[in-house]
Design brief:
By secondary structure, the chain is an alpha/beta fold. The protein has two domains: 106 residues, no CATH class; 183 residues, Spore Coat Polysaccharide Biosynthesis Protein SpsA, Chain A. The protein contains 14 helices and 13 strands. It has a seven-stranded mixed sheet, with helices on both faces. Strands 5-10-7 form a three-stranded mixed sheet. The relative contact order is 0.14.
Length: 393
């Protein structure tokens, strides 16, 4: 019988650990292409008729983004739309840029925002005002940094009508420009996406709910029945909570993989990436310390350790510090290759070249820091507004 501390027992533990990691990464590499396969949006779908869709865009200091969002919204291959921008007390050129992009189009309106009442977060308050102003049968809430495909509205209305959805949301594409965007955003983004069970989220029998705030379309009559965004008025993670509110009322929701339907440039620098994800990543984990700690442990043990194990053992072997069996070197070397191979599959699935797979360990270090800092950040600020424990102050 093996005893703790004996060489044989240590090798057994190491072998078991490497086996689990190897099987896990092999499954991830082989299964990456199947993510969301049954729920991919058909961009060529067209609805039988075209009810009015109100594209609602809350915008706070979005100069540099809002023009592209408005232009893409007005360029839809869909005859019945209106585009409404709410300028949420911006201090930059958001208003003039939005009006310039609309270029006098009669389908465009801009309304001036106001500071949210007590207990309201800025975005839910802006969405509430937009929804009440809108005339459409469907309300499509998009972020001001979203650029829609010309086919996005038609395809979405087609799916919503066919599946009789009260709320429809989707994942789109990331527009990644700088080094840090390419290195970090897919790591954090795919951690979020990878935890979404499409089958459960899209099943009426399951309580699981999810929506992506970059693109949420709802039936206005149903939205008004539940008092609109008032049901999530204080939440920093208003998109997920809105989907939960719909599901809790036995309303039908749908989440899709809409590659090509829209693109979004989330953040432009490392500091923006950290601040942006820190405000809502831990909130998405239910502010559970056990889930947060488990996530950090997974990142370090499951992603970073396999990459550093091989060069570390190889260095010990070459220097003579330890006599390392070739079996362990080959095995840890395989693991070191599997980690970026998984990221490479994701990069290619997203339509990128894939060479940023080499930055995967670096991206995970940043992810670990975001997780740790968000767990201890009870009060965060975003665009000049403060949140405590994920709620508006």
């Amino acid at each position: 019988m093996m005893v703790w501390g004996e060489p044989g027992f240590s090798q057994l533990l190491l072998g078991a650990f490497l086996t689990v990691l190897t099987i896990g990464w092999l499954l991830l590499v082989l299964g990456a292409k199947n993510w969301g396969r049954s729920w991919r949006l058909d961009l060529n779908a067209r609805p039988a008729h075209e009810p009015l869709v109100s594209i609602c865009i809350p915008a706070r200091n979005e100069s540099g983004n809002i023009g592209n969002a408005v232009e893409s919204a007005l360029a839809q291959e869909y005859s019945s739309i209106e585009v409404i921008v709410l300028d949420d007390c911006s201090t930059d050129d958001t208003e003039s840029e939005a009006r310039g992009a609309a270029d006098g189009d009669e389908r465009f309106r801009l309304i001036n925002g106001s500071e949210p009442p007590s207990g309201w977060a800025g975005k839910p308050w802006a969405c509430q005002r937009l929804g009440l102003e809108a005339q459409g049968e469907y309300l499509l809430f998009i972020d001001a940094d979203v650029v829609l495909s010309p086919k996005a509205v038609a395809a979405s209305v087609s799916v919503a009508a066919e599946d009789e959805l009260d709320l429809m949301s989707m994942f789109g594409d990331w527009n990644l420009v700088s080094f840090w965007e390419r290195a970090v955003i897919p790591v954090v983004g795919w951690l979020i996406r990878g935890t979404v069970d499409f089958e459960a989220v899209n099943s009426q029998a399951s309580s699981q709910a999810f929506a992506n705030g970059q693109f949420i379309m709802v039936r206005k009559d149903v939205w008004k029945q539940i008092r609109g965004h008032e049901v999530v008025k204080s939440a920093v993670l208003e998109d997920v909570w809105l989907a939960r509110a719909f599901k809790q009322r036995a309303l039908k929701t749908g989440l899709y993989h809409g590659r090509g339907a829209f693109s979004v440039r989330l953040y432009r620098s490392l500091s923006e990436i950290i601040a942006g994800y820190r405000k809502n990543l831990y909130e998405g984990m239910g502010r559970s310390p056990s889930v947060g700690c488990a996530s950090v442990l997974f990142v370090f043990v499951g992603t970073i350790l396999p990459v550093v194990a091989f060069p570390t053992l190889l260095g010990f072997s070459i220097s003579g510090v330890m006599n390392i069996s070739p079996v362990w070197l080959w095995w840890t070397g395989l693991l070191m290759c599997l980690v970026p191979a998984f990221r490479f599959r994701l990069e290619r699935m997203d339509g990128r070249s894939g060479w940023h797979a080499l930055t995967h360990p670096l991206g995970n270090l940043v992810l670990a820091w975001i997780l740790l800092s968000s767990m201890f950040s009870y009060r965060v600020e975003w665009k000049g507004r403060s949140f405590t424990d994920g709620r508006a102050e």
